């Protein structure tokens, strides 16, 4: 369905977080999420369930109205489809195969590149027409390099940390005294921890990887990996897998625990935050788990949404970059820099950013900042978010991006080619239409709604970003959700 400009300014789609214990229909990716269409006049639309992980119905076409009566035959067909798309082996079977594979002679260690599976001797014939390669024991310790990254940007794209970012994260965590790392969607960090433990040059650390990519079950034991969907806090292995997380958080023995999460950038912030909170409090009897420190890796322009859901967090200036992404690279100047940052509830002054990479300590802000992030005496902060040196606007009484100019007609700073006349506040509340407040403080806003879906391109912050980060989903939120609706 095409979204016209009129549509964008007249409706939105919200995700509604259901109460704990309330069951929702399941697709192959686990329990679905509940959505609701809302109009600018505040009228409520019909609610529906859709996949939690996929934003394109071509990847997962699950759709069900909340009040829809589903026949027994349809339920059985749905369950059969879900069963057919599950991994061919259980986690225990995968790891048994791995131990057998590891004991094979070097010339018999074959990996099928088409099926992305380690082959045992009796399986070579069935894969004879496929592309395959011999692998070494060293390659078995780097599954993220061996496996082909998933690249569907609308569902499960995998961008993997560079060695620079991986080593920085691990060195920082080790320096802060953490010895247990819960790796949520961070396979590179998991690998580095295991490799350092083998070198025996550092104090050993324990790690548990939670990831939606079941292929990692081929390389890690059940105590090291859980097949997990971070959008709905779903463990595909059931209670036995969730118990592994509880054990990991419980058996601390005085060891400090930290969680590092790298969600897909197209993910909805409120469901992700909800899942992360559930991870942190997986063991309600463990105060350490309930207050567990965390690092969430996400683009800087999602800062308002993240802080809305997790107000104790703050954004650091450190630029996280990825091996297999054309834009998310560490750079020296603004537009050439990766937009990905660290959000954390750890004190910013305690996270030391490397001076040799261009970071410095601001004694006023008491945190490490990028060298071009100059402290503004008027704002009393280092204001830059994107790595460029921002400038102070005396009229707006705040610092703005260097490419922005103050517009007398709009009464605010904006890009020189912005649509003049659409000043902040004139459009009023999205929920009821009032010009006196924004939807966030609307008295008619439903108490069940946790997250708001901003209208695509409506924010002046998005105009410049989209040109630079066209494949990100900051501007996709509405379009994607409407595509879930039946035509």
TrEMBL record:
Keywords recorded for this protein, A-Z: Cytoplasm, Metal-binding, Methyltransferase, S-adenosyl-L-methionine, Transferase, Zinc, Zinc-finger
Domain GRF-type: 27-69
InterPro entries attached to this UniProt entry: Mlase_EEF1AKMT1/ZCCHC4 (IPR041370), ZCCHC4 (IPR039846), Znf_CCHC (IPR001878), Znf_GRF (IPR010666)
N-terminal signal peptide: none
Cellular-component GO terms for this entry: cytoplasm; nucleolus
Protein location: Cytoplasm
Chief location category: cytoplasm
GO molecular function: nucleic acid binding; rRNA (adenine-N6-)-methyltransferase activity; zinc ion binding
Record protein name field: Zinc finger GRF-type domain-containing protein
Organism from which the protein derives: Anabas testudineus (Climbing perch)
Gene: ZCCHC4
């Amino acid at each position: 369905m095409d979204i016209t400009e009129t549509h964008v300014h007249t409706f939105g789609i919200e995700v509604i977080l259901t109460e704990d214990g309330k069951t929702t229909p399941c697709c192959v990716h686990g329990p679905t999420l509940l959505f609701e269409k809302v109009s600018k006049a505040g009228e409520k639309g019909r609610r529906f369930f859709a996949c939690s992980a996929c934003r394109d119905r071509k990847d997962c076409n699950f759709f069900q109205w909340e009040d829809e009566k589903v026949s027994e035959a349809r339920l059985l067909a749905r369950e059969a489809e879900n069963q057919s798309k599950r991994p061919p082996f259980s986690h225990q079977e995968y790891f048994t195969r791995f131990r057998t594979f590891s004991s094979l002679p070097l010339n018999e260690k074959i990996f099928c590149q088409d099926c992305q599976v380690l082959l045992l001797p009796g399986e070579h014939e069935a894969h004879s027409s496929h592309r395959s390669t011999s692998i070494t024991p060293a390659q078995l310790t780097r599954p993220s390099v061996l496996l082909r990254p998933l690249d569907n940007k609308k569902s499960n794209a995998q961008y993997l940390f560079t060695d620079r970012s991986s080593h920085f994260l691990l060195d920082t965590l080790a320096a802060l005294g953490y010895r247990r790392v819960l790796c949520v969607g961070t396979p590179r960090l998991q690998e580095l921890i295991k490799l350092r433990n083998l070198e025996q040059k550092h104090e050993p650390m324990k790690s548990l990887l939670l990831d939606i990519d079941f292929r990692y079950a081929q390389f890690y034991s059940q105590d090291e990996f859980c097949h997990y969907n971070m959008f709905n806090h779903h463990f595909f292995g059931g209670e036995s897998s969730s118990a592994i997380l509880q054990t990991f958080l419980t058996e601390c023995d005085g060891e400090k625990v930290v969680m590092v999460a790298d969600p897909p950038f197209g993910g909805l912030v409120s469901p992700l935050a909800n899942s992360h909170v559930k991870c942190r409090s997986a063991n309600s009897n463990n105060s350490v788990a309930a207050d567990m420190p965390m690092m969430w890796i996400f683009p800087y322009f999602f800062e308002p949404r993240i802080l809305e859901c997790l107000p104790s967090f703050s954004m650091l200036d450190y630029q996280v970059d990825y091996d297999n992404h054309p834009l998310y690279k560490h750079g020296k100047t603004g537009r050439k820099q990766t937009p990905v940052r660290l959000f954390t509830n750890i004190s910013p002054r305690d996270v030391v950013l490397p001076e040799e990479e261009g970071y410095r300590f601001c004694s006023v802000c008491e945190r490490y900042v990028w060298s071009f992030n100059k402290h503004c005496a008027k704002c009393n902060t280092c204001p830059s978010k994107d790595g460029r040196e921002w400038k102070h606007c005396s009229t707006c009484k705040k610092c703005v991006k260097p490419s922005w100019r103050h517009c007398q007609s709009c009464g605010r700073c904006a890009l020189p080619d912005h649509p003049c006349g659409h000043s902040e506040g004139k459009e009023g509340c999205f929920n009821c239409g009032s010009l006196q407040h924004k939807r966030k403080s609307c008295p008619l806003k439903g108490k069940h709604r946790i997250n708001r879906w901003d209208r695509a391109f409506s924010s002046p912050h998005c105009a410049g970003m989209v040109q630079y980060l066209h494949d990100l989903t900051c501007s996709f939120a509405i379009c994607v959700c409407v595509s879930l609706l039946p035509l």
